[in-house]
Design goal:
heterodimer, A: 476 residues, mainly beta, six-stranded mixed beta sheet, four-stranded antiparallel beta sheet, 4 helices, 8% helix, elongated, B: 196 residues, mainly alpha, globular
């Protein structure tokens, strides 16, 4: 049983595609929930959606890919005080089915769904906050032809709004629950065998807001618990439990992110050494954060899903670049994806201006342009006022890889024939307001994009903010 | 401490090298620049040529002369641009040859260098006598002007050399009248107007 089925949340990495797509669901204000998926086989890893499913106001939803069919998607959600289920085949025609009622009342908030190793097929297990306080545990017998849901087993107490559930590798597969109880984050667990008694609550943290998410990661020998939860003061907190030590101590928090977050979902993807990937519900927005599965353990984000901005680029060619334009655009897209900025190659045009092939760019200072730059940048066929035009010339005088100085109102840059794979993205970075840095891991290195040590080069959060605030990036 | 090829490459592989700063490497960088000029990468060769011209060294002329006959037009263009930086008697023979270049953009850069040299001469020695024999005097006069040092004197001398090279001026006049490209004709006319 893949570990992804044994952890709850609203983000999963499915078996669709070669790499494994990300599948994401979130309640819609218009009713039902929205399904998004990220195509992880494309270099730009675009999110697709939202695709609306169902109706009625859902407060929280939980998603798994089960072992039914070709990997059905299975969803449970709280609709009013009801617990409902949806499912979708893991193949065409991808039609969603539901809602099917699991519990007709008494539940509230954010439920958690997993497929455990109990039974032969693997039962579904749901833990959901009760309107009367505490939690309810339901399970579905997937070995029975009718797939009956059990009556609830109630445990815990207090006002609980959100819950996260995993089946760990402790004992014969303990169920482990993390619940937000007031401003506290508490832990419950239950043995994976009779007498099925729930233990807890054990307080892990205070100052918490919203629904947490826990997984058992690949870190350590046993597999550490990784827990991300919204903070009362905004942003997120990451805790981890060292399951290799006898007293299994919790460490943290590492705080990251911003905004008032109501719910979070965490997975360990198959990127790198097992990146941690987080989706946070921030109001009506969905923010993606990620962290490498190895040092320096830095969190990146937020990258807002469905809010991709675009930069429209027109290419004017006096001398074709040694690296084909489509490769330069693809390389740029690799970098700009981290800023949720889509690169649209809006047009390509050949310009017959041989006398400007070695273009006088003077000192290449922003706001100062030569007569030749003014002449060249007057060629803006097809380009809107906020479109960026990149002119490929044979060389500049003095010789540079490129120059982003442009006349007022004519945003653009020059790149030379022999420029590197990253010069195009670098010069447009200047046009969007970025300055040089002394760090060869970053796109805006002033030490030469030929010397970038860890391609694709990085953009830091402040640069991303600058780019997204630029007049030259906007809704696609 | 000796300048290394690694240092030179580190500067020239930047997307936007700071040539003024790079010129501080001094004449010890010239042999490395000559090697880079001989390498296959025309972009690096162009940068090497331009940097050489920014370094106050007699050997820089050799680099620019070699670049001026490169098979790569952008390197020849860099050589044409570099001539305006050379801090000694101008390489009028190089400029003259580059005016005959089959590439329109190389001719344009060359004309702009001649124009820049002429303008510099006008700035530094506006009362300069016309005769070539008085070149030295021109240099001294320019050097004596407020703010003009040894380099300024050389620029004035360079301007005078350009002006005194009747063959060069003849080519500029011919380009102004006959070049197939109207832009070149315009630049050439402008160049003639800028020469003192």
């Amino acid at each position: 049983m893949p570990s992804s089925r044994k952890q709850s949340g609203f983000l999963i990495q499915s078996t669709h595609g070669v790499q494994g797509n990300f599948e994401l669901i979130a309640p819609r204000t218009a009713g039902g929930f929205a399904h998004y998926w990220r195509n992880n086989d494309l270099p730009s890893m675009p999110w697709n959606g939202p695709f609306p499913v169902g109706a009625g106001t859902l407060t929280g939803v939980s998603l798994i890919q089960s072992n039914f069919g070709a990997g059905n998607l299975e969803v449970v959600g709280c609709q009013g005080n009801q617990l409902v289920a949806y499912w979708r085949l893991g193949q065409a025609p991808w039609t969603w089915n539901g809602p099917f009622t699991i519990a007709s009342g008494g539940v509230v908030g954010h439920p958690a769904l997993i497929q455990s190793t109990q039974g032969t097929k693997g039962n579904f297990e749901v833990v959901v906050p009760r309107a009367a306080g505490g939690l309810s545990h339901y399970w579905r017998n997937n070995d029975h032809p009718n797939f009956p849901w059990s009556s609830p087993t109630n445990f815990g107490s207090g006002n609980i709004s959100g819950v996260s559930l995993i089946q760990s590798n402790f004992g014969s597969g303990n169920l482990e629950v993390i619940a937000r109880q007031g401003n506290n984050m508490v832990h419950y667990w239950r043995l994976g065998q009779a007498p099925w008694t729930w233990h807890g609550p054990f307080t892990i943290a205070t100052g918490i807001n919203g629904t947490p998410s826990m997984i058992q990661s690949k870190h350590g020998t046993k597999g550490n618990f990784e827990l991300v939860m919204p903070r009362a003061g905004g942003g997120l907190a990451h805790y981890w439990r060292n399951n290799d030590l006898p007293n299994v101590p919790w460490s943290g928090p590492t705080n990251f992110g911003t905004g008032n977050i109501s719910a979070v979902s965490l997975i360990q993807s198959n990127y790198g050494a097992g990146n941690l990937e987080v989706i946070a519900r921030e109001g009506n927005r969905l923010a993606h954060y990620w962290r490498l599965g190895q040092a320096p353990w830095t969190w990146h984000g937020p990258f807002y899903i469905g809010e991709t901005e675009c930069v429209r680029v027109h290419v004017k060619i006096l001398t074709p670049p040694n690296i084909p334009v489509h490769e330069l655009v693809a390389s740029m897209q690799q970098v700009y994806d981290t800023a949720n900025i889509r690169v649209v190659l809006a047009s390509t045009e050949n310009l017959n201006l041989p006398a400007l092939n070695d273009l006088d760019v003077g000192g290449c200072f922003m706001g100062q342009t030569t007569t030749e730059q003014n002449q060249l940048f007057a060629n803006r066929n097809n380009a809107g006022p906020n479109d960026v035009v990149v002119y490929f010339v044979r060389s500049t005088v003095p010789p540079y890889n490129g120059c982003a100085a442009h006349p007022t109102g004519r945003p653009g840059a020059v790149c030379v024939q022999g420029a590197t794979r990253w010069t195009f993205a670098h010069e447009i970075g200047h046009v969007l307001g970025l300055a040089h840095v002394s760090d060869n891991n970053r796109l805006m290195t002033g030490n030469g994009t030929a010397n970038i040590t860890n391609p694709p080069p990085d953009l830091v959060d402040s640069e991303i903010s600058t780019m997204r605030l630029s007049n030259l990036t906007g809704q696609c | 401490m000796a300048v290394t090829m690694e240092q030179v490459r580190e500067i020239l592989t930047r997307d936007e090298p700071n040539y003024m700063e790079a010129a501080q490497l001094g004449s010890e960088a010239i042999p490395h620049l000559q090697k880079l000029l001989a390498e296959a990468d025309p972009l690096l060769a162009s940068k090497a040529t331009y940097l050489a011209s920014m370094i106050n060294s007699d050997q820089a002329v050799d680099v620019v002369k070699e670049a001026a006959v490169s098979e790569h037009a952008e390197v020849r263009a860099a050589a044409a641009a570099a001539t305006r930086n050379l801090p000694q008697t101008p390489v009028t023979d190089v400029l003259s040859n580059l005016l005959d270049d089959g590439d329109v953009s190389v001719r344009k850069v060359t004309l702009k260098s001649i124009s820049a040299l002429g303008a510099a001469g006008a700035d530094l020695g506006e009362a300069k006598p016309k005769a070539g024999a008085k070149k030295a005097a021109v240099g001294k006069k320019a050097a004596g002007k407020k703010g003009a040092g040894k380099k300024g004197a050389k620029k004035a001398a360079a301007a005078a050399a350009v002006e005194d090279d009747t063959s060069l001026l003849g080519k500029v006049r011919r380009l102004a009248e006959e070049d197939a490209d109207p832009y070149i004709r315009e630049i050439a006319s402008d160049t003639l107007n800028k020469l003192p």
